[in-house]
Amino acid sequence: MSEPDRLNFSASLHPSLSGERLPQHPLPGDRREVARLWQEVFQDSGEFVDLFFSRVYKPENTLVMKRGNRIISALQMIPYGIKTVRGVIPSAYVCGVCTHPSERGKGYAKTLMAVAMEEMRRRGYSVSTLIPAEPRLYDFYGKYGYTCPVNHETETYSSVRQLPDAARPVTDSPDYTFAGYATDRHFPFFDRKQRERRCAVLHDADGLETIVRDLACDGGGAWVALRENIPAGMAFAKPETEGKITVREILFDHPAVKEALIHHVLNLYGARTAEVHLPFRAEDSHTSLPVSRETKPYGLACILDGQTVDISDLYMTLMLD
Asked: What is the mean pLDDT of the chain?
């Protein structure tokens, strides 16, 4: 769809927008204004906003609406590959859908989403994904075809030993040592493990470095379990409430590595419980830690190209949500 056709498509859906600018890609000098709108709407930290708009944001992957020269609504379409049984297919992750509080209820987000759907199809994306910020938004996005649920399992582990409240030592397991994640040395292990999954959103090395920096903004990080200096597992974690951590992703070659990593991050944060995210219907693994498991909704997916592609077990993790 050409640019003029795309704008005519928007106008036909929302004739009330005559006299106001229709969806467009932002100008090179609009980055700071898009960032200010994001921060005002989502109340994210300045660290996160600076990180996103310095490493992820690109004008060509952004749509905005303006009143005069003022940006009043925006969204992002971030490209990702999705590994499926057919191979890797192109996709876009929609995020940062926002409208200035003074301009809500006028249909701007609907217009942006309608144009974004056409734009993603024009670019040849097979699938689009997103993470609704609130439960009520599941119905809103469902109107645009986001009806495929993306779930994950959560395993909640309880520490089997209470360490003193003073300095809590972080000791290596008898079989493994632990190191902070370093992209150049450890990404090949991460990439191999993410591609072993049946169906998953894939992260490249640059994107994963952004994720690690984002975790660091929240007091978290990524740790690698090493055996004879060779990666055997990896965990991405951050603290939540006092005494609890979330392990947003965990990768391992053997269940014993998984348990060693969970022990490590529990000790590292002096936490009593760890909620670990795993692919939907992940296989059980034996552990000496007390554990409970449940399934939770996480996001939504939309098939854009009308082709038959099985994304029923799609796993989406470490997204900048």
From this structure: 88
